[in-house]
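Batch 3, record 17
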Amino acid sequence: MIVGKQKPFDEIWDMVKGFKKVLVYGCNTCVAICHAGGSKEAELLASMLRMRAKQEGLDLLIDSAGIERHCEPEFFEPLDEKVKTYDLILSTACGVGVNFLADRLAGAIPVYPGINTSFYGAVPEAGFFVELCGGCGNCILHLTGGICPIVRCSKSLMNGPCGGTDKGKCEVSSETDCAWFLIVERMKKLGTLEKLFEVQPPRDWSTATHGGPRRISLEHIRAYEAEEEKKATLTGEGK
Amino acid sequence: MADVAEAAEQILVSTVEAPHDTPADWTPNVLAFACHYCAFAAADLAGVMRLSYSPSVKIIRLPCTGKLDHIHILSAFEKGVDGVFAAG
Amino acid sequence: MFAARRIEYVKTLLKKVGIDPARLEMYNLSAAMGPRWAEMCDEFVDRIRNLGPSPIWLASRKQSEKGVTEQ
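Prediction for the assembled complex:
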């Protein structure tokens, strides 16, 4: 899932204080799981902002709301009218949500981020999140025993550990495991260590962000949707 | 002992809030969230025993303090309550 | 105790908005502790009396006074 962390309160306050009517808009998917931007966090943040506004003597109306997802248009629809009555949306969704809502509002209302979107991660234990995937668009986990060197190695090394590997820990931080140490240990257990000796062709990085914004288009689904739409307009004309 | 008294005094002087004068007509307004089965029963008992305690405390009964949410506390402060405690 | 954990967390939030975390506390007591309840209430109210009115109360007071003078 996408992991984020709420921005420092003072930073949020600086963003918000110049406006009159603000909606703190939470997203109940990934960022709710990491206690950063769900409906609940949006509610708390709105309450804190109201208290701050009161103390500073500012006449600021701050509400909160939340929907299940900020990354699909359907979920926005029930609150569309309400959203349009504000002059700032403070979104506590991830960066995807902020972009998507800002596009949807098309410049009518500004959308500001309430959280810092950090990484794609997992939750090994409650309240603890680790980055496990870099979203590079060209997965090699089958070659590295299910451990991603691109994001779990501090240097994103592709060919093995660097000289800084120290008893299974990384030289960048002793709290970080050396990804290549993990990979070798894991592949020994899997009995596939010899796979590491296979020479791989140079990596194609164009699938990562280096190739510009990425898209995935599922033609079979889009064709079906287009067909349905066509049918709907035809029957509409028939009437 | 002097150290203890000094430390206690320091705790009472707020470092977070800006210094302010207390208006003469101000009385503390305190909200208590009490669990129905322990603290609320204790408060009941205090009543039965005819013990007098500060009238500033207003009690809200919860089925359990586990029901107490962050937002309940924040809303109380937002409304201008001077202090909140939970008992259970 | 979930409530105790929540209270600790809300204390950090209060600090961020300029409210003294000492205005919030968690107490544990049993149903048989009537006298302790009375004692505890007095203790806490004393603490609040020392801290004075909450910044929010002062702010809304200031606001309403301003409203009156403007009228």
